[in-house]
Each structure stands twice: as structure tokens, then as C-alpha cells.
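Example record for the data management plan.
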Amino acid sequence: MATAVYRGNSVNRGKSGKAMKKKNRRSSWLARNLVTILLAMIFIVGAGLLLYPSFSNWWNSTRQSKVLEQYISEIEMIDTSLAEAQIASALEYNHNMLSKGIMWAMSEEEKILYDAELNSGDTGVMGFVEINSIDVKLPIYHGVDESTLARGIGHIEGTSLPVGAKSFDDDKGEVMDPQDGSHCVISGHRGLPSSRLFTDLDKLQVGDAFALNIYNTVLIYEVDQIRIVEPADLSELQLVRGEDYCTMVTCTPYGINTHRLLVRGRRVSTQDAERYIYRIQSNANQIKPAIVAPVMAAPVLLAMFIAVMLDPRRKLKKQEQKEKEEDMGIELNLELADLSIERLDLSQIDVEAFLKKGKSVVKKTKNQTKR
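Corresponding structural encoding:
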């Protein structure tokens, strides 16, 4: 491999020289496109952060919908008499609780009996809760451990099962036996980045309705009380004889979670559901801002990115940079200097004068071309 000396610097020829030339070209390309690469990375990261909550919520909603579809299909396949027997067993379970009270600390035997109720498919799904005013439809599972609450809504074990009071008369919309009663308590997270769950529960108002669908038996509750309490305050969750309640529990304030939000509903007749139809339809026709924002923002970000990439000033700067590099290439053009340099005696040639002459020839040719 030959080595030439030019202006005090050694210039390697041959394979290593070509490798160095390629490396320089790569470095030059990176330097020219560094801003473009950074902008592309910023755009991708920004779009990802913007779209993640909506995409993740959509993914979890799809998964929850599949769980509900599976549950509904399983219930439809169950013999009617078996489904009625499951509901009757759960009603009896609630009636027996009146003498014991809510069992906040269950024994092992009581836990086994609890898990066996409303669990025909061995999936842990009791049914599902629907809150049309905030577009919620979620499966209800046995228990409130962390893995359960990450998937859906948990039923707080020890409280009444979500089938209501044994003596409730649907035609009259009230508990007929003053010594009978039920208070089901269900709980869910809010503020999870991956799923909405009970995030919008604080938007409910007194008079709103929600429904429990258990083995194709629908129970409708009208919100009659909203409370914010300390985590250890269980006074609002007690059984009340003569009443059929369902309370939904979640953490509050949003993101701080130092207290508990209790939204209690009092059971009403399913015939009263018709007065909620207009409200349900009105909410169904609204497109939620959480969906609109990412859908609108993504094209705007893409348009801004394309505009930056197609900016004519950027192209002009790129062209000027290219011409500058060409001039530098002419000045230090090793290809012009490569006139069989290995076979010449450098001591007899004034290299600097030779290159200077070559530069003037190229410059003259360039000027003629412009004319």
C-alpha cells in the first residue's frame, strides 16, 4: 500500500484508504441528516405518547368485550332451570347475611362458599355492570385483589351478592319484607393509563342509573347518594333492612387516591328503565374528547413533520452545502492527484504547483459551463 504526503498529512491509498473514504461518507451523511433524524424521533415519540392511552384503552376494552361475550354465550348455553337455581342460591346467601351482617373478615370455609356462588363457568365472572351515562360496560369478578382490578370490576367479598334482596318486587320497585335487605359493593380502579374502568365515576349525579346483568337477570339502580370518605370508613357500606342498595367504590381525588368515592344506587323497577332511554341515546350520540383529540392531533403532527421535511429553505441549504463540499472536493481532489503517484518520484514534482494549476483549469471549465 502506498502512502502520499500532501501538505504535511499522510494520505493512505488502497483498501484502507477506500474504507476511510466510506466511513467519511457515512459521517458526512449523518451530519447532513442529523436534524431530520432528530425531528423524526421527536415525532414518533410524541405520536406514541399521544396515542398510547387511547390505543391501550381500546385494547383493554376489546379484551373486556371478549370476556363479556364469552360470559353471555356461556349463560345462554346454561339450562334455564340451572340459571334460576344459581340466582335462587345467591338470593338465599344474601338473606342469610342479615343475621350475620357484612363479613369483612371471612373464614376459609366462608370463602369457599362465596367463590362457589354465581360461578358456573369457573371464570370468576359473576356478571357485568353497565353505566350508560359514562359509557361503561365491565365484567364483575369475585374479589378485589390487584390482578382482578386490573381486568375489570371486583365484588367486595363479604358484602351482598349482586342479585339484590330476596323479597324485592320488581312491579312495585321495593323490598316487600321490612326485615329483608341487600347491599352489594363493587370496586374498580380509576386513572389507569391502560384502561378507563371507573375513571369517570365522579361524573355520575344523583338520579343517574346503572344496571347489573347477572345470569341474564337485569337489576336497575338509581343513584341516590354520593359520598367521599376515608379508606377505613365502612359506615356507608352497611346492610340496611328494607333497602336494596348497590354501591360502586373507587379512589379519589384523581391520581392522589387518599380517599374513597362511594356512589350508591337504590334499586328500582326494571319498568322504570324506559325513562332513561332518552338520556342513554343522548350520550350515545356524543363523541368523547378523549377519542377526538388523538384522532385530530395525529394528522396535524404528521402535516407539520411533512412541512418541515419539504421546506424549500431546507432544500436550498442542502444544495449550498453540497456545492461547498464539491468545491472542497476540487481543492483537495485526491483523484486528480492520483496520476500514477506510486510510479513517480515525488522529489522531482512540485505537487503544490501541480494541484494549483489543476484547480485553475477546473475553475475555468466551470465558468465556461455557466456561460
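Summary line stored alongside the record: Residues 4-11, 276-289 have pLDDT under 50 and may be disordered.
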